[in-house]
Design a protein that fits this description.
Blueprint lengths: L42 E6 L6 H11 L3 E3 L1 H7 L7 H20 L4 E6 L3 H13 L3 E8 L2 H11 L12 H7 L8 H4 L13 E3 L5
């Protein structure tokens, strides 16, 4: 396991949970109502994928569509002047994010967490914790071919831009085996997205 985690790698070193493992049966029933104005049940959206998968791009779009509060660790670390590879700082920040997200859900506010969620145990913790608060929970897994991830990471790197870090092919080859891909049975545990929004699993074909 690498000594430093890349941006967007929540749960790639450890996952802690103080949430009771109690989950209401089945997906959210018709207690929630979607219309042009509001939704009666808050939603937690987990944006899952490797670096370069497009997590922030998707999260920003969903932030406007819902609307929701979007919590991005890379953006906050950059604003605070902290190295994006500082594992301890990232873990502390994401612990605060999770507490804050739960407070928002209790108030009826939907939340988007775009921390990557490499481990199923971390995804389970968030799903169970949000469900215990009466929220619906969506998983948005961005599946992108390895070569396309490398191309995106290389093209977006700007050494003079704050928050831009270089992730090489060699680094991604080291990280990829640590990522626990959500299987169909796990995806089935999450609530379905409304028909007018992005599917829970997004496959991005390689570009020629």
């Amino acid at each position: 396991m690498p000594a430093s985690r890349p941006p967007g790698a929540r749960g790639s070193t450890r996952s802690t949970s103080s949430t009771a493992r109690v989950e209401r049966p089945g997906p959210f029933p018709t207690a929630y109502v979607w219309d042009d104005l509001a939704v009666s049940v808050p939603r937690l959206l987990l944006i899952c994928g490797l670096p370069g998968a497009g997590k922030t791009t998707l999260a920003k779009r969903l932030e406007a569509e819902l609307p929701a509060v979007r919590l991005c660790p890379d953006e906050w670390l950059t604003e605070l002047g902290i190295d994006l590879f500082d594992v301890r700082a990232r873990d502390r920040l994401e612990t605060v994010f999770w507490r804050h997200a739960q407070d928002l859900l209790r108030l009826g506010q939907s939340v988007i967490l775009e921390s990557g969620f490499w481990l199923r145990s971390d995804r389970d913790e968030k799903r169970l914790g949000a469900r215990a608060l009466g929220a619906a929970v969506e998983l948005h897994y961005l599946e992108v071919p390895f070569d396309e991830l490398c191309r995106r990471l290389e093209s977006r790197y700007e050494p003079d831009t704050p928050g831009s870090v270089r992730i090489t092919r060699e680094m991604l080859e080291e990280y990829a085996p640590l990522f626990e891909v959500p299987a169909a049975d796990e995806i089935g545990l999450f609530d379905q997205h409304p028909a007018h929004r992005t599917a829970a699993t997004v496959k991005c074909p390689a570009k020629s």
